[in-house]
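thread: overnight batch results

M.L. [08:02]
morning all. the overnight job finished for the chain we discussed friday. pasting input first so we're all looking at the same thing
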Amino acid sequence: MFAVPENTVALPSSAVAVHPVRVALQVALDRDRWKHLLRYDPEERFSTLIEKTDDQEIWLMSWLPGQTATLHDHAQTTGAFTVVSGVLTEVVTTRIQVVHQLVEGQSRVWGPGYVHQVRNDGTDPAISIHVYRHGTRAMNAYRYDPVTGPVR
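M.L. [08:03]
and the structure it wrote out:
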């Protein structure tokens, strides 16, 4: 057993006190909260807002095979995404590119300056939940230069 110091301060019970991965995982498990919003668009990745508060936005995205979000960052926004079903590929780009294959239940986190691309390289549709904090779902486009890394 241990004693809690008298100067311990309890965290507020606001949603921002919960890590965005935990929020994404909780929403992913609560399919009744978003299943009526789910669509698949044959032309481009589908996305729709599930919930917006002063602190965060929660988005549902669906990906048919071959669909992609081009190389981008999220400006000053922080957040996370979780794969609900299917397989997504995330390419994180600095001076090098690091590829992550993500399956159901796996998550990734981002912050300002995090440049990445997300795509469905699989043969089946994929679904993901995205949580955006400290701003909106802003995206700055980049291209990859193999010598210098991401370029806006």
